[in-house]
């Protein structure tokens, strides 16, 4: 974590995997501040279980802007998808690797598996997540790969299209 105060806006830099200590640090920071925040995210992803608590902390914050930089993949991408706050892309070389969550990612905050393999298979059949993916403005080839469980890589133009209603420019 890095803290910069400028013009009465705080800058928080999340440069980590989505794992327990990094998420706890970010949530603690948000809970202990009330100035507007520029929240930079650079992550290869991590445990999907941690998307919800960080999403809630971001959504509850009064004035926050998300700045995905370099890489905002996997859980990082789903954090962007699950928030409604403004997003600013500063770098056109930014990328996101998107895929269905991996089985080992479904753990709670104590890193205990949430679902056994049978339950996870049933939950994977849940259409809610599939429908979320189907709503993304993707090329058919990309969408087919995602639905087969393969990774896809999204770059600036695709990400700008996905988040066009929330983009701000600096």
Helix content: 25-40%
- Main β-sheet, in a few words? 4 strands, mixed
Q: What's the number of extended β-strand segments?
A: 6
Strand order across the biggest sheet?
1-2-3-4
Helix-strand string: EEHEHEHEHHHEH
The whole-number mean of residue pLDDT values reads 83
Low-confidence stretches: none
Radius of gyration: 16 Å
Number of helices: 7
Strand content: 15-25%
The termini sit apart by 23 Å
The gross shape turns out to be globular
Give a structural overview.
The protein has 170 residues and is an alpha/beta fold. The protein has 7 helices and 6 strands. It has helices at 20-31, 51-60, 75-82, 117-124, 127-134, 140-147, 156-162, and strands at 3-6, 9-15, 37-43, 64-72, 95-98, 152-155. It has a 4-stranded mixed β-sheet with strand order 1-2-3-4, covered by helices on one side. It has a two-stranded antiparallel sheet with strand order 5-6. A hairpin with a 2-residue loop joins strand 1 (3-6) and strand 2. It is globular, with a radius of gyration of 16 Å. The protein starts with a strand and ends in an 8-residue tail after the last helix. The mean pLDDT is 83.
TL;DR?
This protein has seven helices and six strands; from the N terminus they run E-E-H-E-H-E-H-E-H-H-H-E-H.
């Amino acid at each position: 974590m890095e803290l910069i105060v400028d013009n009465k806006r705080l800058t928080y830099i999340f440069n980590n995997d989505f794992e327990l200590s990094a998420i706890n640090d970010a949530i603690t920071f948000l809970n202990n501040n009330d100035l507007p925040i520029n929240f930079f995210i650079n992550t290869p992803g991590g445990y999907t279980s941690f998307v919800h608590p960080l999403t809630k902390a971001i959504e509850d914050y009064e004035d926050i802007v998300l700045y995905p930089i370099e890489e905002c993949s996997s859980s990082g991408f789903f954090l962007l998808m699950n928030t409604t706050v403004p997003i600013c892309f500063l770098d056109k070389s930014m990328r996101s690797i998107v895929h269905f969550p991996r089985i080992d990612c479904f753990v709670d905050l104590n890193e205990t598996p949430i679902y056994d393999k049978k339950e996870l298979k049933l939950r994977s059949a849940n259409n809610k997540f599939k429908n979320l993916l189907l709503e993304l403005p993707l090329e058919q080839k990309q969408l087919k790969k995602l639905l087969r469980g393969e990774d896809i890589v999204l770059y600036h133009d695709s990400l700008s299209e996905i988040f066009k209603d929330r983009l701000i420019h600096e």
